[in-house]
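Internal tracking record. Fields below are filled automatically when a chain is submitted to the structure queue. Please do not edit lines marked as system-generated. If the sequence contains nonstandard residues, flag them in the REMARKS field before resubmitting.
Queue: standard
Priority: normal
Entity type: single polypeptide chain
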Amino acid sequence: MGAFVISRRFNDEYKFTFTSRKGKVIFTSLSYELRFECEEDIEKFKSSIDLARFLKFKGSGGKYFFKLMLGEVHFATSRKYSTELLLQKGIREIVTYASKSEILDFSSNESIFEDEVVEEEEMD
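SYSTEM-GENERATED OUTPUT FOLLOWS
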């Protein structure tokens, strides 16, 4: 099952990605000033996935991508795909798993592995 991952951009704004079951990013959201806005939009998307539209494009470099629209609003942009078939598989992953996916928040600057690093250093 995929996951929505909240993180920060370099300018300190928030964003979220939807990742596949294998951990590959499928799409990235627009920017948000506040973290709770990400959570609200994720929940809104999960509950109204049937209203989502996928506008498909082929870039100048020959790669395929889509813009995810929720109603008339541009919601997110996909990663680049080398073939149209892979693009379609990414869309299928969203339609199949997004409504059931968990939300992971990695937006804080704290290291989640900090304690383990200290323990390893003490062992040396």
